[in-house]
């Protein structure tokens, strides 16, 4: 709740795509949470470069982050849509990000 | 998913498949709830389950690896354990302080040990306890023993807590909807489209296992898909439905995963002797093998397998559902690896018709942690003496004892076998032992000081049990019980519920089955709800005195009333 | 390195990229992580990229190189701790003072925790996947273990033991009053508590394994040292042989230690430490302290030193909720106090007497009748007992917090003492008697109430209540008959209280006695009205007479009907009154037998002397003597004793006494006696003393021995005989009652039931009951069953 902390973080995919997302969404991921809460480089710059994910995957992950944030408390949750082709890669990414 | 046997019991009832999962599923099916929703929920539940445990316990009855329990689940757990321990110790100490000093035992100089009556000199370390109504001090030896005993109890409680969490999580997910993780979503999609997968890649062992389980559940595990799971780095292979995997493919397992230490092949009717022989060559690190339904394997093959270096090295052997496992096979097993076995399951092996071969067991088995002998060909084959001898040798280490369907057993083995020898026992299953009487069970559990408390007790179909026996069980293990099954113990009366309501508390009880216990009514439900705060599932199938009017906690799910729905 | 897969079929799921594992690659990845760890340990983490490190660890795990990574991480952490941290600490031990060293230790500990947090965050994947799969401890916990082994326990627990000793030393200093840095101690102890040790079932060095370093190494030393400290303190205090000093100091030590424990010791230790402390300070020595003559329990009780007693109580309740030690000692003191009652009371009386003499030295030393003295003794004795009881009540309330166990013990000590013999029953009755007769007169209603209640307190203690009943009955009869009661209300009040205690069977006789008196009063006034105009009486006496009778229903009153008294000859005056009254009575009640008792009662006679007339009140016997022998109408002037006896037929012992009262007693010599000796012989001659003079107009003739006095031994044994007789009857009645109802009973049951029924009156011994049963069998009320020797059945 300090004024210095920005409510947004930047995620950069390995192919250069930048995504600005809310911190709350980022914290859904255990890995991202660790990155932001420990005093390494990332937490001071509020930017995380993810070498394991390309833009398409990262975008999907981010979509999930928001989905999770939105429906976390509710009972009636719609299915999260995943295009079949990317399912395995997305699984690897999800495993990496603990999400 | 164990195979249903059409065999009748003495009472003419068909064997029922036990366990909340199966009952639930069939109930769901009856209710015509959409298969899609079931599957989705199921898979999510499984995913969560698999995340939290390394053993395949919840999905299948029996054959699980108790050593999985030892995981430290994270920092919170450690601190929590610490707190529990410290609190319990302080409480114990405080309780001891409340006791007054016995006149006869002076606080200085020589003293007589209140336990063994030896003379000794009191020191700062001498423990003061209350025993036999008096208060006094223990000599150093007895002090050590007492501390050991208390340690064991404490440890049991901690273990029970851990177990409870797992069970609770698993159960909870079956009813409550939790938002799926991304991994689960992906696994979902992958499993549905498994045909489109050629390679699983580096998704991590845990996720692999999950996918494997799901595929087993929806019968998608076949020659092609199973290959996805093969990797030289795999240490554990679990295929819960091998009915669609042919013998050639089964060989691939050994070919591609020679480092496997633990192999589970369920419904493996297509397992051929060539496979087993091949396994005997390739699986050099194999320690635990679980084969359910391997009816193609004949006696000679079994023997060859056990004779091999692989066979000699085994620590856990679980064989179920084949009539071709003969006495000679068993002898070969015992000869080769009997001494080192930690786990042994012999379930529904109709080929074992000789009592004398069963009687060999105590001569070989020395270090068992898990023992299951269930549904023997004839009930006379398994008698009290056998079990008593087994307990005598293995009791110290034994944690799980399953004797379902061994209806030839009587109270004697409980009193002379289990009671004196089994301090470490945490899971006991005695389904269908109809000769077990009330007084036998009471004798076992009353004053069973060496045992710190059971976590999982299944007494379903022990129809001779009544209030006294059940109360004795509950009183002994109330602090550590996580799962309890009293299905069809119909002699339980209303009085029992009143009694436990007054005297006992079940801080860790998570799953309870009171199906076909007629005396269970709404007030019993209310009592249970109050005294078992962590109880999540309570099954009351066939108890028509339980109605929707029962007043229970919100987070306690009661299943099986006519008014219940999922 | 990614594989290229073409899309086959509808939708193909793209497989994830596969990484080929390679030994060399391990080094490349590892070295980055290794350096990072070092930087973190040197507090230089901010320049590092979390993602990079996390990713590298992730890759290593995926490549199944988790084990190597895990092991190497552990080694790296260890390196730093061994070489940097430990060295730093050892140097500090040499050069810095202890406190600085501890601060440094704490600081490296906290730094280490911080580093571990960061390292473990970065290695999250290793934890989540590898450690979990192989059931290994998490990296963070590994860090703790390494710290424990490389810093604290390294080289035979070198640093660890130094730290322990320093801290123990500080604690000892604090015990001796020095100010120490509590916070650092608390912090170090917390550190020790965080370092887990494995739970093991073996212990080769005799000390059970604790679950953390604190429990395993620190606590035992602490407990041992503390024990030595407290033992020493206790001994030092004990030497001083003063209960006050010991207790006050022990309490202080106790409080200080508890405060200390709160400040920096973990919860797990406090019960152990407290137990140890209580043991050394209290349990060991409390008994000897209490027994100290000059400054121990006895003197505190005697001096009513509530403060010390309360402190003592507080201390003892810490270790012994049953208070066995205290109870024993207290009992002894109570009994001692009780035994002192006798001497104390005697001394008091002597003092009072001396005071009275001092005040009026002129008055002739009123030689107090020894019996009167004895009565006063009894009264004072009870009073002293009540005071003693009150003393203990106050002690129980103010010092012992009303502890029921102690109260019970005291009460039972009292009961034990009071029931040693039956004197208490007698004393109590005398006390009440005295009160009702004299002292209650000048007390307010509340005070009277209080005194009666106190009497009941003593009454409760008495076991053989029937003894008391006997005495009370006697004394009550005397009071009623001699009209010495100061207030009927008080009498009834007492009876009501007794009834409440024991039930009405006890008191019914008393109430009967009362009723008799009341009815008699009414009867008397009715009678007097009826003879007011009686001519014949007027004629014989020259005036009208009044008769106040007391008609006693025999079963209520303790006096037996003495048939010999029927023989007494009454003078005509009295005879007429008698007849009149008898006929009057018969009109009121029919079928009743009246027997006159001239041995009781008084007569007022107007005596005319030449110079003066007197109104003299004398006993009935004395009146009979005078009226029969020495009235105007008497034949002779002188009569011998024998002659008087023949005329009056008053029993000789009484005759002697009453003659003495009117001829020997100095103020009431109405008769002349020849010879003038004190004793009376048959040939002695009596005549009217016409020289009789008295300053008063109204005179009362006192008869020897008419008050309630303490029994002497013969009397007492007579009383007891009577009581025993009635006990036999009561027991037999009880047995018959029970057997009649039950028809059959075993011996034991019968005995129990008899005891149960009689317990309110007295406690019969089983052997006594057995005797009664035997007698009843002889009398054929019961018979033994043929089948079982110890079963009886009732014979109708």
Provide tags for this entry:
heterotrimer; A: 99 residues; alpha+beta; Potassium Channel Kv1.1, Chain A; 13% strand; B: 566 residues; alpha/beta; Leucine-rich repeat, LRR (right-handed beta-alpha superhelix); 13-stranded parallel beta sheet; two-stranded antiparallel sheet
Molecular structure report:
- Chain B: One of its GO terms (biological process) is SCF-dependent proteasomal ubiquitin-dependent protein catabolic process.
- Chain B: Residues 52-78 have a biased composition (Acidic residues).
- Chain B: This is DNA repair protein rhp7 treble clef domain-containing protein.
- Chain B: Residues 1-23, 46-79 are annotated as: Disordered.
- Chain B: InterPro entries: Leu-rich_rpt_Cys-con_subtyp (IPR006553), LRR_dom_sf (IPR032675), Znf_Tbcl_Rhp7 (IPR056451).
- Chain C: Belongs to the cullin family.
- The complex is a heterotrimer of chains A (99), B (566) and C (796).
- By secondary structure, chain A is of the alpha+beta class.
- Chain A has one domain (2-97): Potassium Channel Kv1.1, Chain A, CATH 3.30.710.10.
- Chain A has five helices and three strands.
- Chain A has helices spanning 23-26, 30-37, 41-45, 55-71, 87-97; strands at 8-12, 18-22, 47-49.
- In chain A, helix 4 (55-71) crosses helix 5 (87-97).
- Among the domains of chain B are: 1-65, no CATH class; 87-178, no CATH class; 181-352, Ribonuclease Inhibitor (Leucine-rich repeat, LRR (right-handed beta-alpha superhelix)).
- Helix content of chain B is 41%, strand content 11%.
- Chain B contains 20 helices and 17 strands.
- Chain B has a 13-stranded parallel beta sheet. A two-stranded antiparallel ribbon of chain B has the order 1-2. In chain B, strands 3-4 form a two-stranded antiparallel ribbon.
- The longest helix of chain B is centred in the first third of the chain and has 36 residues, at 140-175.
- Chain B is globular.
- The two termini of chain B are 21 Å apart.
- The relative contact order of chain B is 0.08.
- Residues 1-21, 53-77 and 97-109 of chain B have low confidence and may be disordered.
- Chain C is 65% helix and 5% strand.
- Chain C contains 30 helices and nine strands.
- Chain C has six domains: 22-152, 5 helical Cullin repeat like (Up-down Bundle); 157-284, Up-down Bundle (5 helical Cullin repeat like), CATH 1.20.1310.10; 327-522, Cullin Repeats (5 helical Cullin repeat like, Up-down Bundle), CATH 1.20.1310.10; 523-598, no CATH class; 601-700, Cullin, Chain C, Domain 2 (Ribosomal Protein S5, domain 2, 2-Layer Sandwich); 716-794, Winged helix-like DNA-binding domain superfamily/Winged helix DNA-binding domain (Arc Repressor Mutant, subunit A), CATH 1.10.10.10.
- In chain C, strands 1-2-6 form a three-stranded mixed beta sheet. In chain C, strands 3-5-4 form a three-stranded antiparallel beta sheet. Chain C has a three-stranded antiparallel beta sheet with strand order 7-9-8.
- Chain C has 796 residues and is mainly α.
- In chain C, a hairpin with a 6-residue loop joins strand 8 (782-784) and strand 9 (791-794).
- Chain C has helices at 23-41, 50-62, 66-95, 98-122, 124-133, 139-152, 154-175, 182-194, 213-239, 243-264, 269-283, 286-291, 297-302, 306-319, 324-359, 370-398, 404-418, 423-437, 445-461, 465-482, 488-502, 504-530, 535-541, 572-588, 620-629, 641-648, 652-663, 713-742, 747-758, 766-778, and strands at residues 602-608, 613-619, 638-640, 671-674, 685-688, 698-700, 744-746, 782-784, 791-794.
- At the A-B interface, helix 4 and helix 5 of A face helix 5 of B.
